[in-house]
Design a protein that fits this description.
- The complex is a heterodimer of chains A (about 130) and B (about 110).
- Chain A has 5 helices and 5 strands; from the N terminus they run E-H-E-H-E-H-E-H-E-H.
- With about 130 residues, chain A is an alpha/beta fold.
- Chain A has a single domain, classed as Response regulator (Rossmann fold, 3-Layer(aba) Sandwich).
- In chain A, strands 2-1-3-4-5 form a 5-stranded parallel sheet, sandwiched between helices.
- In chain A, helix 2 runs parallel beside helix 3.
- Chain B has about 110 residues and is an all-alpha fold.
- Chain B has a single domain, classed as Four Helix Bundle (Hemerythrin (Met), subunit A).
- Chain B is elongated, with a radius of gyration of 16 Å.
- The model of chain B has no long low-confidence stretch (mean pLDDT about 90).
- Classes of the chains: A alpha/beta (about 130), B mainly alpha (about 110).
- At the A-B interface, helix 1 of A face helix 1, helix 2 and helix 3 of B.
Amino acid sequence: MSQPLKKILLIEDDDDIRTILRVALEKIGGFTVRACSSGAEGLRAVGEFTPQLVMLDVMMPDMDGPTVLGRLRERPETQGLPVIFLTARAAPSDIARLRGLGALDVLTKPFDPMTLHEKLRKAWEQQSAKT
Amino acid sequence: MSMEAFNRQIEALRAEYRAGLPDKLREIDGLWRGLADGALQPGSVLDLRRALHSLAGSARTFGVAGVSEAALAAETWIEPYCARPAVPGPAEQAVFQRLLDTLKQTAA
């Protein structure tokens, strides 16, 4: 059985979404969260923060979520790091494409701040059960 | 933190978001006007789309679903112009302007 989920790296360029996500994850979920506003910042933070899970926005200006995921997969130390995409596009084809990139899950915006932590824990437990 | 305190914090964030909506709409309007009158390069259509996408993604989470839907409609409409990128022609601009007007009315 793996460790319970505790440390989450959040990479989201939208200030408002990043703030409400952080509050929801820390205050209700009880997670330790490191929040980054760009893919480049997130990639720099991942080494020192050593998250168990990354929540990654799909559409960001400097480097989009799939590119960040690709960079993580290139590094041996983050090759298997679970990533959950955040996207405003809920079309089944978009979600299937993101899952196909190797994401653990895809969460669509809007999200309910009250129940977000449950979704993350569920995805984490499913992942743990597989490994 | 108690659930009550958390709810208060979320409500405060939502109120702050709603208070900031006019600034977001001004930014979108400024980008659109700049594109329409040629003051901005066609590549700025990507910034316009990004701003609409951001609004579409966040507004519903902050309790203003109508704004989210109106922003999504505008984002979807402008998206084909991002691949080239290009500025819509005069006749098409009227269509987009109506979508923006709807967005502003919904947010008001």
